[in-house]
Amino acid sequence: MEKQLAVAALAALAQETRLDVFRLLVRAGAEGLPAGQIGEQLGIPSATLSFHLKELRAAGLLVCERAGRSRIYRPDFEAMGELLGFLTENCCSGPASC
Question: What is the residue-level pLDDT of the chain in tens, covering all 98 positions?
Fold first, then answer.
């Protein structure tokens, strides 16, 4: 993962509502959740939720697909793994052990 992508992902997650949304979707797993259900579970108005979902998608952390009239949001587990790998790639490679 490039540093710029890691910074964008971390910046997106550095906001409380977006972090809550992302964690909810991680718990939901690969099936994801429709936007309305995300808003209901977290008590987020739809306009506000739309903004935060857009930010998470732009950071590459979510994928979205249409299912009829709904949009289903899922975490991008590959991107999440890459971010974790980026953050830990130098772990234990220095003089001090982790």
Answer: 899 999 999 999 999 999 999 999 999 999 999 999 999 999 999 999 999 999 999 999 999 999 889 999 999 999 999 999 999 988 776 555 55
Domain membership flag for residue 96: no
Owning domain of residue 31:
3-86
Within a domain: residue 62?
Answer: yes
Q: Which residues contact 17 (CB under 8 A, 6 or more apart)?
A: 42, 44, 48, 52
User: Does 36 fall in a domain?
Assistant: yes
Cβ atoms of residues 75 and 62 within 8 Å? yes
CATH code of the domain containing 10: 1.10.10.10
Domain tally, the chain: 1
Token code pair at residue 26: 């991680």
Tell me whether residue 52 is exposed, middle or buried, using C-beta atoms within 10 angstroms of its C-beta: 0 to 12, 13 to 18, 19 or more. buried
